Amino acid sequence: MGIQKTNIEIQGLSALLMHRFPLEPIEAIEKMSKVDQAEISAYRVPDDSRMLYIPGTAIQRALIGGAAFVKGKGRATMSKPAAACLLVTPEYVDLGMTQYVIDSRAVVVPVTKGRIVRHRPRIDEWKVTFNLEWDDTLLSNDELRKIVDNTGARVGLLDFRPEKKGPFGRFIVTKWLRCG
Question: What residue spans define the domains of the chain?
C-alpha cells in the first residue's frame, strides 16, 4: 500500500525538561541569570508567538529508540525499519503554551566530569498532537503502535529522559487516528 499517515495525541506522564543546544558561547551563558539561562534552553517557535514546542526530529529520534524494544524478524529489532520510514510532522510540535517553571539541578558535564548547576525550562502538564507518516511495507499498524507505546514508557522525550537514566518526558497515547 505504501505511505500511511496517523494522527497521534500524546499526554505526559512526567514533566518535560527542555535543553535546546545553545548558539551562544558557554562562557557567556554561565554569566547569565538563571531566568536567562532557562530562556536560552527553551524551544520556542521562531515567530512572534513565543509558543513552546517539541522538535519533530526529537519525537522521530525517540521513536527510533523505542523501536529497539519491538522484536523484528529473527533476532533483529524494528530500529532499522523505523529509521527508514518514520517522519514526524510538523517540524515544530506546538505545546500550546508560553510559560514554564525553571528547573535548577546539578548536572555532570561528560567531557570534564565536573558538576555544574543547569537551569532549564520544565513543563509539568503537557499534551501534543502530531502526524506520523510511515511506510506500511516496512511496519504494520500494530508494530507502529507498539513502537509509540514503548517510546513513551522506556525512551521518553527531550532532556533527562528514561533513555538517559532520568524520569522526565514519559507519555501515553490518548488519540490514535489513521488518516486516509
Answer: 3-179
